[in-house]
Design a protein that fits this description.
There is one protein chain. By secondary structure, the chain is an alpha/beta fold. The protein has 2 domains: 89 residues, Arc Repressor Mutant, subunit A (Orthogonal Bundle); 62 residues, no CATH class. 32% of the residues lie in helices and 19% in strands. The strands form 3 sheets. Strands 2-4-3 form a 3-stranded mixed beta sheet. α1 crosses α3. The longest helix is centred in the middle third of the chain and has 21 residues. The protein starts with 7 loop residues before the first strand and ends with a helix. It binds zinc ion. The site of zinc ion has 8 residues, from loops.
Amino acid sequence: MPRPFKCRKIYCSPKTDYFKPRAIPVSRLEVNNLTMDELEAIRLADLEGLYQEEAAKQMSVSRQTFGNIIRAAHRKIADALLNGKAIKIEGGVVAVQNERSFKCVECGKLWNEAYGTGRPTGCPYCKSREFHRGSQERGKESPRPEGPGPAEMRRRRRNRR
Ligand SMILES: [Zn+2]
């Protein structure tokens, strides 16, 4: 029995959905279909440079699944580049996220911002400018083996004085 397919979370929307090599008539053109989840995997791993484990978490898939997705994506792109094929971006079982989550480095709070509003100027709780994109799954943060972070250390130093 096939497992129910879980939606893969994606945050990107492509600026264009069709790439074709110059000077090959459409009638003779072969087209590779790149799905939205494959494009998202490319964005996370190749453009943003995330480790596969982190990228998998962002897309709500296992690391192994992420590996399969990105391998398929790389193969299609390589095939298109080397064999002069077009790439059409469409499809995939995906849930497009309309909100991005951020996490404050100073106070540790998470908050969401609508997509397309640009990078927030600061944490809405403490106004700190030190924040980063947060995990979508609250309370499931990976443990930090290196102990308290720099912000926490600063806070402790301040409190000692
Ligand atoms: Zn804050």
